[in-house]
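Work Package 3 (structural annotation) set out to generate three-dimensional models for the target panel prioritized at the project kickoff. During this period the team completed the workflow that converts sequence records into discrete structure tokens, so that structures can be stored uniformly alongside our sequence database. As a representative example, we reproduce one entry of 62 residues exactly as it appears in the project archive.
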Amino acid sequence: MNITLMQGPVSELNIAGTQLDALGFTGDKLIIGGGWLTGFGITESRQLKITAEPGVMRLHMR
């Protein structure tokens, strides 16, 4: 799976009323966006480790 971190909203994936500006799938890519990423110091995808199990995806800072 490819991971793309976006700074700022992605309108077609916008989730109103949440801390996320964007979260969604485009093909085989998971797109996560929002100012909260940089607020935690996350500016590149390599700063995250992702684990998954049925129904759950966890983002861990490296």
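The chain has one domain: 2-61.
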